[in-house]
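> example.struct
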């Protein structure tokens, strides 16, 4: 039994107001999940909620049949997460699927990153994920699931992504340990490592890139809807490591079995300062 076989399951999606998180929310609403979106900006949350209400299959949103809720919180703040939990407890007594999708990226050389840009990437992408998971774990029942967003840059590092890569490698380690910790509770843990995905974050990342990072064309970004479908299929099939496209699966295979050759190829493939 998976979370997709449950009757009226509830999903909490951090970073659910935009990009991949919103694409997952869209698919889950269509599958009759109650959906809670957690992010910082209230206007974006309200806009996302209105869109989800427009696509709910039965139009029953807001009644007892299907709920869509938002909560404004910062995953990197314990205080903010505690308040979010208190607010949600009034309407929800369980979270069957926790999707940890909140994340930020700032592409630049290590010595060009400010203190705040380094801290932000680690605090939101890694510590924020650990804190949010700890805060909501007690609401996840047997047969529930946790999906953590890493990145292809959680499998290998690229110049310009030192802090981001470190956070995303950390997410893979965190997820691996958590999976074993939760085996006896029958809560499944999954980690997703997408390549470039066409989202607001991806667009901003490209605007922010220094010139030296633009010297080589990157492969076309995946649509967020495709990543969402691969995540749902990965959870249904009990996959721990969810690699949403063939190029990332090939890369993972090469890195495991031919690490030196892979490093040599990657050294030539991507821009360097
Ligand atoms: N797009 C890609 O190419 C790509 C590739 C690999 C992995 N990923 C990963 O996939 C995840 C989603 O990325 P995306 O491209 O969909 O990004 P996005 O469109 O920018 O969405 C990010 C979401 O996270 C929320 N968020 C950011 N900081 C937060 C915080 N401190 N607390 C709570 N919510 C926060 C944002 O809302 P607020 O700003 O309002 O809080 C927004 O809802 C990220 O973890 C990203 O690292 C993305």
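> example.seq
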């Amino acid at each position: 039994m998976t979370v997709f076989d449950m009757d009226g399951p509830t999903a909490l999606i951090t970073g659910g107001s935009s990009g991949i998180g919103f694409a997952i929310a869209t698919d889950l609403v269509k599958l009759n999940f109650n959906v809670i979106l957690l992010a910082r900006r209230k206007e974006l949350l309200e806009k996302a909620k209105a869109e989800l209400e427009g696509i709910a299959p039965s139009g029953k949103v807001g009644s007892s049949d299907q709920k869509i809720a938002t909560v404004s919180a910062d995953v990197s703040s314990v205080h903010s997460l505690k308040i979010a939990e208190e607010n949600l407890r009034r309407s929800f007594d369980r979270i069957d699927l926790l999707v940890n999708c909140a994340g930020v990226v700032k592409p630049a050389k290590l010595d060009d990153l400010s203190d705040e840009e380094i801290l932000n990437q680690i605090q939101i992408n890694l510590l924020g994920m650990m804190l949010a998971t700890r805060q909501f774990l007690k609401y996840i029942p047997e047969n529930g699931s946790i999906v953590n967003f890493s990145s292809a840059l959680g499998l290998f590092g690229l110049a310009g992504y030192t802090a981001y890569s470190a956070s995303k490698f950390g997410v893979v380690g965190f997820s691996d340990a958590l999976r074993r910790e939760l085996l006896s509770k029958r809560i499944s843990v999954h980690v997703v490592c997408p390549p470039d995905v066409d989202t607001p974050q991806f667009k901003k990342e490209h605007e922010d890139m220094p010139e030296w990072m633009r010297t080589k064309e990157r492969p076309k970004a995946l649509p967020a809807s495709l990543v969402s479908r691969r995540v749902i299929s990965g959870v249904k099939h009990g996959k721990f490591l969810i690699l949403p496209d063939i190029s990332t699966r090939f890369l993972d295979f090469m890195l495991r079995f031919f690490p030196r050759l892979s490093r040599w190829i990657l050294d030539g493939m991507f821009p360097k300062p």
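> remarks
The longest strand covers residues 34-39.
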